[in-house]
Amino acid sequence: MIRFQALAEKYDTPLYLYDFDYITTRYNSLKEAFKAKKSLICYAVKANSNLSVIQHLGNLGAGCDCVSIGEVKRALYAGVPHYKIIFSGVGKRDDEIREALQKDILMINVESEAELNRVEIQAAELGKEARISIRVNPNIDPQTHPYISTGLHENKFGVDLDTAKRMYIFARNSDFLDPVGIHFHIGSQLTQLEPIREASAIVADLVRSLKVLDIDIRFFDIGGGLGIRYENETLIEPYDYAQAILSTLTGLDVTIMMEPGRYLSANSGYFLTRVLYEKVNGDKRFVIVDGGMNDLIRPSLYNAHHTIELIGKGADEEVSECDVVGPVCESGDFFAKNVSLPITREGDLIVIHSAGAYCSTMSSNYNTRGRVAEVALEDDGKHDRLIRRRETFEDMIALEKAYLKKD
Ligand SMILES: *Cc1c(COP(=O)(O)O)cnc(C)c1O
Predict the structure, then answer these.
(1) Whole-number Å distance between alpha carbons of 108 and 106
(2) What is the CATH number of domain 4-15+267-391?
(3) Best substitution site from 43, 65, 157 to test ligand 1's pocket, by max atoms within 8 Å of Cβ?
(4) Which one in 60, 258, 287, 345 has a CA-CA gap of 20 to 30 Å to 170?
């Protein structure tokens, strides 16, 4: 049991709380599942990029999958070694590519022919050989939400098989490119194993055909995307995941790389918010809380389900349906619609579950609301520690205040 009340009192609300032991357990379960082969888990930093979260995973042995040079620098700053950092993403600026090369990261995941040319030019200017991996789009329907589906040709990500082959040959013939890896990532919040296995089989076949062309792929990057339980989703077990991938790799001597984000951190996280008051408009009951969509946008953005828990109320209390909404001036500012809750009072504590991935990282200052504090729980929840202080008004105006006109 997490001491939600005590922590809300100590740090105030709204607040993010992350159980680091949970992250450890998840990391170990994945690592263990793949123990038959060499593997490197590169945590997808975009899921939760708090420096202490990255540091915690780095200490467990994780590398990082980054989608901007900012994330690469975060990973390095948190102590993750440069040779465990990879740089993915559908659009990279020249200066980002250049800096990644200068920092000598493990590899750049290239997503188009045009990008490969840009990487070659930057590497040539620096007199370096860029280690690259190519993101293959295997045209598999991952059966997830369209916004987080990435493995179909209609999605903007990666290149088709023929293009990939052409790019590998181009890279092999270049003095400035070293094609060491191959990559696919078909979507997020995946709950079906078969699309992953199919994608892996297609990409593994490509690796075999590249071998014939004297292109030796050493890193087989299966992306991220493992689903988690928000509500009652069926889940892919790490063991089954590993077996499905391994079954496609017979005869290949590769290091398996993974880029899990949500799987590692989502259910480590809780968002704590307090009730401001209730109101009724016509037949509709609203519980208005001090957290808003600027703090946690997934319900507004994807209509995502997050379990809502009202702390300190008995199970025998009478409930009625309500919407739990924030103070932001948008109708889309809600955490849950038509949930059954007892009547709340000012100051009651509400915990929003599964808030460890794509929550704080998507937060903003909309409505000039400061980003909230973040706290780590460690040692079976016995210790709590601030890992990001609450943003102040001064923080929010810092980049603008020097530019006011003076008369
Ligand atoms: C977002 C992303 C991930 C992580 O996805 P999760 O669903 O959080 O596991 C991994 N790799 C790439 C390339 C991504 O874009």
Answers:
(1) 7
(2) 2.40.37.10
(3) 65
(4) 258
Give the other-Cβ count within 10 Å of 334's Cβ: 19
Q: How far apart are the first and last CA of the chain?
A: 58
For the Cβ of 197 lying below 6 angstroms from any atom of ligand 1, the answer is no
In terms of pTM, does the model score above 0.90?
A: yes
Give the residue extent of every domain in the chain: 4-15+267-391, 89-258
**Does residue 92's CB lie within 6 angstroms of at least one atom of ligand 1?**
no
The preferred substitution site among 49, 110, 185 for testing ligand 1, maximizing ligand atoms within 8 Å of CB, is 185
Find the 346 Cα to ligand 1 centroid distance in Å: 39
CATH: 3.40.50.20, 3.50.30.10, 3.20.20.10, 3.40.50.1240. Which one for 89-258? 3.20.20.10
For residue range 257-308, list pLDDT tens digits in order: 999 999 999 999 999 999 999 999 999 999 999 999 999 999 999 999 999 9
